[in-house]
Specification:
Layout: H1 10-17, H2 21-29, H3 33-54, H4 72-78, H5 81-115, H6 118-133, H7 136-147, H8 152-159, H9 167-170, H10 172-197, H11 201-209, H12 214-225, H13 227-242, H14 246-251, H15 263-273, H16 277-306
Length: 307
């Protein structure tokens, strides 16, 4: 009588034909290949190309070839008084209009709107968000019409008997800071409104029962709860403000002189008006480093918050 061999179980049959863990990992990552290719072609590739240009003397016109010049573009930048002035004005613009202006005003509006009636909230939200959805160049022209010598601001000041002046000539960096606050506050307002709505009502009610007034509830309950949101918002609006170009260029073109010339304006002038592509690209890399430093600080603060 012939012995019958045991029939392998379903699990054993499946195990015998299953691919190895390496192949399974590759198969799981297969759907991401198109995204990785697109990122490599349209993001990593141009960045690598720009890094190469920053170490060359490439010019837009007037040169027969391009040579590798090492760190000469960076050395030239840090010995250039106009570049150092642009770095200083960029920091003033970012701190004044984003860190202080948009962040503080957005938080204040979000807190005040919690107690306002629905029609008032709708009106304020509509006015603030309307400025945010405007294209940067359109917002720049509106702010130019508001601040220039015969503009709306001087008309209002003249109507109440106050002295007028050409704001875009006497205080251009203040004018572009206020313009950026006006245009960008809506983002902070929406972020903070969502965060405040998520504050547990039990915490606020417990503080109120303990006798805390409105200011104490805000300082000791609301702000500590939304602190991670504040840091995240600061990081996002700082990076966005570092790249503002159209608003400033439309209002002042960096002038008069170089009194409102931030790094994006200075970079554009060097690369496309003076035809120094290599030097302009080196300035762009410096701007990238400034943004990275701000990001590292904010991320570090967020990690401390989590710990």
């Amino acid at each position: 009588m012939t012995a019958v061999s045991p029939v392998p179980s379903r699990e054993q049959r499946t195990r015998g034909t299953a691919p190895s863990p390496v192949i399974r990992s590759l198969l799981r990552g297969l759907p991401t290949v198109p995204a990785v290719v697109l990122l490599a072609v349209f993001l990593a590739g141009p960045i690598a190309y720009c890094v190469y240009y920053a170490f060359t003397d490439m010019q837009l016109t007037g040169a027969s070839g391009t040579s590798f010049v090492g760190v000469d573009n960076f050395t030239r930048a840090f010995q250039d008084a106009d570049f150092l002035n642009a770095v200083k004005l960029t920091l003033v613009f970012v701190v004044g209009s984003a860190v202080v202006g948009q962040n503080t005003l957005g938080l204040a509006l979000a807190i005040l709107m919690q107690k306002a009636s629905k029609p008032v909230r709708s009106l304020i939200s509509g006015v603030v968000i309307a400025a945010w959805v405007l294209p940067e160049v359109v917002a720049g022209y509106l702010m130019y019409a508001f601040f220039f010598d015969q503009g709306s601001l001087n008309s209002l000041l003249d109507a109440v008997g106050l002295p007028t002046q050409n704001w875009l000539y006497t205080m251009p960096i203040l004018a572009v800071c206020l313009a950026n606050v006006w245009r960008g506050t809506a983002f902070s307002l929406m972020v903070f409104s969502a965060a405040i709505n998520d504050v547990p009502a039990e915490l606020t009610e417990a503080a109120e029962m303990d006798g805390a007034n409105a200011w104490q509830r805000l300082w000791r309950v609301t702000l500590p709860v939304i602190r991670p949101t504040i840091l995240t918002n600061l990081m996002l609006i700082t990076l966005q403000t570092l790249s503002v170009f159209g608003l400033i260029y439309t209002m002042t073109r960096g002038g008069p002189g170089n009194k409102s010339e931030t790094l994006p304006i200075f970079m554009y002038q060097q690369a496309f008006q003076n035809s120094l592509i290599g030097y302009g690209t080196a300035i762009a890399l410096v701007l990238l480093v400034v943004g990275a430093l701000f990001s590292v600080v904010y991320i570090r603060l967020l990690k401390l918050e989590d710990d």
